[in-house]
Amino acid sequence: MARVPILGDVSGVVDEGLEGLDHNFVTARIEDLVKWSRARSCWPATFGLACCAIEMMATGAAHFDLARYGMEVFRASPRQADLMIVAGRVSQKMAPVLRQIYDQMMEPKWVISMGVCASSGGMFNNYAIVQGVDQIVPVDVYAPGCPPGPETLMHAILTLHDQILTGELTRRRDRTGGGAGIDLAQMPPREQPAPEPTDAP
Amino acid sequence: MTTPVVDEAVGAMDMGSDERVRRRDRSAVLRMTEVEAAELAITPRNPITGEVADERMILNMGPAHPSTHGVLRLLLEMEGETVLRSKPIIGYLHTGMEKTGENLTFLQGPTNVTRMDYASPLFSELVFSLATEQLLGIEVPTRATWIRMLMCELNRVSSHLLFQATNGMDLGAVSMMIYGWREREEVLRFFEKVTGLRMNHNYIRPGGVAADLPDGWQDDIRHLLEIIPPRLDEYEILLNNQPIFRARLQGVGVLEPAEALALSVTGPILRATGYDWDLRRDEPYLAYDQVDFDVVVGTCGDSFDRYAVRLEEIRQSLHIVEQILDLMPDGDYRTQDKKVTPPPRARIDESMEALIHHFKIFTEGFHVPEGEVYAAVESPRGELGCYIVSDGGPKPYRMHIRGPSFANLQTLPHLMHGRLIADAVAVISSVDPIMGEVDR
Amino acid sequence: MSDTEATVEEAAPVPASTSCGQSVLHPGRDAYLGTVESLRNEGYCSAIDLTVVDYLTHPGRTDLPEGIEPERFEVVVGLIDHARRTRIRLRVQVPADDPTVPSLFDLFPGTEAMEREAFDLFGVSFEGHPDHSRILLPEDWVGHPLRKDEGIGAIPVQFKAASERR
After folding, report:
1. Angle at Cα B416 formed by Cα B410 and Cα B417, nearest 5°?
2. DSSP bridge pairs for B205
3. β-pair partners for C74
4. pLDDT (0 to 100) of residue A46
5. Which stretches within B34-173 are classed as H helix?
6. Helix and strand tally (H, E) in chain C?
7. Residue B21 — very low, low, confident or very high, per pLDDT cuts 50/70/90?
8. C149 in contact with B at a CB cutoff of 8 Å?
9. Distance between CA A200 and CA A5 in Å, rounded?
10. Is B318 within 8 Å of chain C by CB?
């Protein structure tokens, strides 16, 4: 049975001196720490417009749970948010409001375009709907679906986190000068370890 | 046969009740353009005497506020913290669905209308299909009717659970949001099993439904009937006697029956005022005359009544679902009229005629005789109506959806008049608008 | 003929018809307000719906009763009588060169938003409406999109990745 040290009882603590530096400290580059913290505490701004907002709320609810990524706090104020999930169709009247909210967010900020209406206008190719929010704000990840189920939205969010961590997102943004424009369907598959060769006759 | 409340309310209509509505209207509804509002924001003036009133200001609420009720914008004229006049500004979700509907065939119509009221999409599909079937003059098989009724009542349950969740969260009972979604996921799981989608199902189509219920659906329904009622009791214990919840909802946003009728209000808001009108019982459609359920009516017309009416309606809907479980007939799930219903996919390989019908229905669409019709159903928000004008072609000439929230929103200035701004949040959430059907 | 239509007919004959089993009245523009008021006095307590139809590209209406001149716009009003559980629909012809009808706001305040929507999307004006402005489209929008001579406003769809996939 493991000994639980009583407060004040330091007899079980091993003092290794300077040799303990190897496993009692974590070293990393500042850049990696910054990317890690940006990915792991990415607070979304509420920009739920239509049906996709209901699925976004479902993703934040207990069954699919965005809280495990630290994202259940949907900030109503864009000043406190990092991520804008544009969930729903953007009408002509709403477009200036969308841009204003995006401008009020502080850098670094990311945009997920959730659903086909936000990504491209969806089934509504008409006078009233902006054909894709990338006409108004730079988009980093497009999540297709009508509405995308919570699994798809989480895939989009996790893709965003991965890309923040690897730095790919920032590279793409610098290259395009706008959003990263990652399409979930076109992501290169993660490197899988090569399967063990079997001696099958 | 009418109830006393109905007679009294109708009688009150003649006795100058609309004078009362008009008086409240002048003092409650803020009718000014944005330019005037901006001017007043700089030098607020008392609108009657004209003198400078620096306690009075015009506050803009929305359209981007916490995403429970969508993109509704309110201009509030406030004196300190009291709301005097207000003006709801809508249109931030206008999608041009009625124009889009004129470019889609009648078979594609449900995909369009289902996205109007996105919390209860099956009702929009139902009313569109009913209107189309009336124009076509076809009969839908009984099994299809009962399947439609089952899905619609489950949709009412999921929509009212959404209301409970968002209502609780708006008032500060944030855990209600988590609980409401917990049950909703169970219902959505059933929908996904039957229709293939969690939302915007495109399941109820003119002629019947898209697919039959899968095997084992009775067990799934029994599972729902087991888990949801005890949790409704939990919500009652959690909320009903909670003093803060009661203080925030009781007496807040009182609406009288005559006012509600004058403002074209329908649904739980009308029933909460004490007025006894439910289309399922009074103008039965589908098979509602063959099932037994109570129409839930409130007493005071305040926000607490609206919450309680919707909670009890969940129980009544589950009672209907229980009866459907026993009474579901066998038969076809869609009409066999070949001109309207696509043939089964297997037949397309065998029969040239089936292939031609399939081709014609999915490319050109079936032709609907000339005429115009209005069909209405009782959606969780009120009377959802569909007015279709057909010119004999495959696409509707004009398709108009009467969204209940569009009319219900007109009550907001009257309900918020003279109350604090915190009550404004409670009032909006108790009216439960879905902006998709408001703006269409 | 139902009691309603008989009573209304006694005051001033309003042509009536039925459509899919639903009774429809066709008052002229001048008789419109009077008809609605007498219907309301009879017990039609709520105005359920008010909308407009633009018949510009319609091949030809065959469901209008005799004596009614078809015009480009039609204002369609639905009323409901809860006590007798009946509905009635009114269809008023509105010419294109003078698209104005009286507003029902004084009789049924609930038609306020519906008339604003009709003005916004079709350009039909309602005299006596307290707040005659656009409701769904931005205030500076030009045109009335649901009119038949205005297109849907679709943009050509580009499939940018199509060539890569081949």
Report:
1. 105
2. B208
3. C53, C93
4. 73
5. 34-42, 97-101, 109-113, 121-136, 142-171
6. 4, 7
7. low
8. no
9. 55
10. no
| CA atoms lying within 13 Å on the CB side of residue B282 | 23
Say if B374 falls within a structural domain.
yes
Is A93's Cβ below 8 Å from some Cβ in C? yes
- Closest Cα in chain B, distance from residue A175 (Å): 31
Taking Cα atoms as reference points, which of B205, B117, B108, B189 lies closest to residue B159? Answer: B117
Please give the full DSSP string across A135-182, using - where no structure is assigned: GTS--SEEE--SSPPHHHHHHHHHHHHHHHHHTHHHHHHHHHSS---E
Residue B375 scores a pLDDT above 90: yes
pLDDT of B166 over the 50 cut? yes
C135 touches chain A (CB under 8 A): no
**pLDDT beyond 80 at B372:** yes
Strand partners, C102: C127
Domain of residue C18, CATH code: 3.30.460.80
> What is the rounded CA–CA span in Å between residue B425 and residue B81?
13
Range of the domain at B119: 105-439
Contact call for residues A33 and A4 (beta carbons, < 8 A): no
Q: Does residue B300 fall inside a structural domain? A: yes
> CA angle at residue B358 from B353 to B363, to 5 degrees?
130
Percent of chain C whose predicted confidence (pLDDT) is above 90: 31
Spell out which residues of chain A touch residue C161, defining contact as CB-CB under 8 Å. Answer: 186
Please calculate the CA angle A149-A151-A154 and round it to the nearest 5 degrees: 115
User: Residue C57 sits in which domain range?
Assistant: 2-165
Stronger pLDDT, B379 or A192, i.e. the higher one: B379
Q: Most B CBs within 10 Å: which of A43, A51, A86, as the mutation test of the B interface?
A: A51
pLDDT (tens digit per residue) in A58-82: 998 888 888 888 888 888 888 989 8
Q: Do B198 and A55 touch (CB under 8 A)?
A: yes
- CA geometry: angle at A170 spanning A168 and A172, to 5°? 70
**Chain B: nearest CA to A39, how far in angstroms?**
23
C86 beta partners = C81
Pairing type for strands A182-183 and B56-61 reads: unpaired
Q: What is the pLDDT of residues B405-416, one digit of tens each?
A: 999 999 999 998
Bridge partners (DSSP) of residue B364 are none
Whether B344 maps to a domain, the answer reads yes
Closest CA to C39 of C104, C93, C101: C104
In this predicted structure, what is the pLDDT of residue B24?
A: 55
- Rg of the Cα trace of chain C? 19
Which candidate from C41, C43, C58 shows the least CB-CB separation from B397?
C58
CA–CA separation, C49 and B385 (whole Å):
8
**pLDDT (tens digit per residue) in C118-147:** 999 999 999 988 888 899 998 888 889 999
Q: Is residue B98 part of a domain?
A: no
Q: How many separate domains does chain B show?
A: 1
- SS percent in chain C: helix, strand, coil, step 5: 20, 25, 55
Contacts of B112 in chain A (CB under 8 A): 123
DSSP codes joined into one string, B168-185: HHHHT-HHHHHHHHHHHH
Among positive and negative, which fits the CA dihedral A177, A182, A183, A185?
positive
Please determine, for the modelled complex, whether the ipTM score is greater than 0.90: no
Left (φ > 0), alpha (ψ -120 to 50) or beta: where does C40 sit?
alpha
* β-pair partners for B420: B82
Interface chains of chain A (3 or more CB pairs under 8 Å) = B, C
Token digits of residue A53: 């907002």
R_g of chain B computed on alpha carbons: 23
Q: Residue A117 is encoded by which pair of tokens?
A: 């209406």
Residue B163 belongs to domain with CATH number:
1.10.645.10
Considering its fold, how many domains does chain C have in total?
1
Check if B283 contacts C (Cβ < 8 Å): yes
